[in-house]
Automatic annotation (TrEMBL):
Similarity comment text for this entry: Belongs to the TRAFAC class YlqF/YawG GTPase family. RsgA subfamily.
SUPFAM superfamilies documented for this protein: Nucleic acid-binding proteins (SSF50249), P-loop containing nucleoside triphosphate hydrolases (SSF52540)
Organism, scientific name: Oceanobacillus luteolus
Span of the signal peptide: none
Keywords: Cytoplasm, GTP-binding, Hydrolase, Metal-binding, Nucleotide-binding, Ribosome biogenesis, RNA-binding, rRNA-binding, Zinc
Pfam families: RsgA_GTPase, RsgA_N
PROSITE patterns found in the cross-reference section: ENGC_GTPASE (PS50936), G_CP (PS51721)
Descriptive protein name: Small ribosomal subunit biogenesis GTPase RsgA
Primary enzyme class: hydrolase
């Protein structure tokens, strides 16, 4: 028996890498199918093999988390890539990503790309958002293709992490990875001018080694609806709300109509950014209007 991590899944085969660097092509045992368990990229597994091309996964260890799209487990960090321009910066979309990532207890990091395309006035606006997110406790990097030194500094984010890259199409996810490691040569989808968004170019899930960590070579979070979140869970996905909820008069305060709400008071005192509170209200309404599931 040996232990390792699934680093690639393709056509019913799972490629398991051991700590010693050996990669063994495995199939899952029939018992997993019977139990409706699918091995995922990122899984820590116990396997047996006589030949590196013919192994069998015998056991899947407990997962700390798992995503459905892309199908991957045990993620420790999500880098949300959003662009300043083409497509334009959208704080509501960024907050949607943040909420989904926070709901899975994964550490978010924010990269804002294409800063070389903005005017001075637009740059000041983006920097004000950067300040607001950093005040919450998020790491935010502003990236420009002209500014190569900043890409060097990004390498530190990957060490000892299993990272998924999230963000809408066309914001430069593959370009960032290619700049960090020129050996990757990931396909970058040309932005379709008529659609104003990129084309999907990545097809299978694989963890690739980058600067002492593993990165999922696939677009993360292709679904951005909040269907897995309940209304009373939403405020926990806003760290600046979570840190103040004890001060609300009522337990289970939704921070909308209730009196003596510490979150609303913090918004009034400009301790919580008003755009974040507006997005919270919008997401809450979306969850409340959702059709019940049976």
């Amino acid at each position: 028996m040996a232990e390792g991590r699934i680093i690639k899944a393709l056509s019913g085969f799972y490629y398991v890498k051991t700590d010693e660097g050996l990669i063994v092509q495995c199939r899952g045992r029939g018992v997993f199918r019977n139990q409706k368990i699918t091995p995922l990229v990122g899984d820590l597994v116990v396997f047996e093999y006589d030949d590196p091309n013919e192994g069998y996964i015998m056991e899947i260890k407990n997962r700390s988390n798992e995503l459905i799209r892309p199908p991957i487990s045990n993620i420790t960090q999500a880098i949300i890539v959003t662009s300043a321009k083409a497509p334009d910066f959208n704080h509501s979309l960024l907050d949607r990503f943040l909420v989904l990532i926070e709901s899975m207890d994964i550490k978010p990091v924010i990269f804002i790309t294409k800063m070389d395309l903005v005017s001075l006035e637009e740059r000041k606006e983006i920097e004000s958002y950067q300040e607001a997110y950093e005040k919450i406790g998020y790491s935010v990097e502003l990236l420009s293709k002209k500014d190569k030194p900043s890409f060097e500094e990004l390498k530190n984010y990957f060490k000892d992490h299993i990272t998924v890259i999230a963000g809408q199409s066309g914001v430069g996810k593959s370009s960032i990875l290619n700049m960090l490691d020129s050996n990757l040569d990931l396909k970058t989808g040309e932005i379709s001018e008529s659609l104003g968004r990129g084309k999907h170019t990545t097809r299978h899930v694989e963890l690739i080694e980058i600067h002492g960590g593993l990165v999922a070579d696939t677009p993360g979070f292709s679904s951005l609806d909040l269907e897995t979140l309940e209304a009373d869970e939403l405020s926990y996905c806003f760290p600046e709300f979570r840190n103040r909820m004890q001060g609300c008069k009522f337990r289970g305060c939704m921070h909308v109509k209730e009196p003596k709400c510490a979150v609303k008071a913090a918004v009034s005192d400009k301790e919580i950014a008003s755009f974040r509170y507006d997005n919270y209200q919008r997401f809450l309404e979306e969850i409340m209007l959702r059709k019940p599931r049976y």
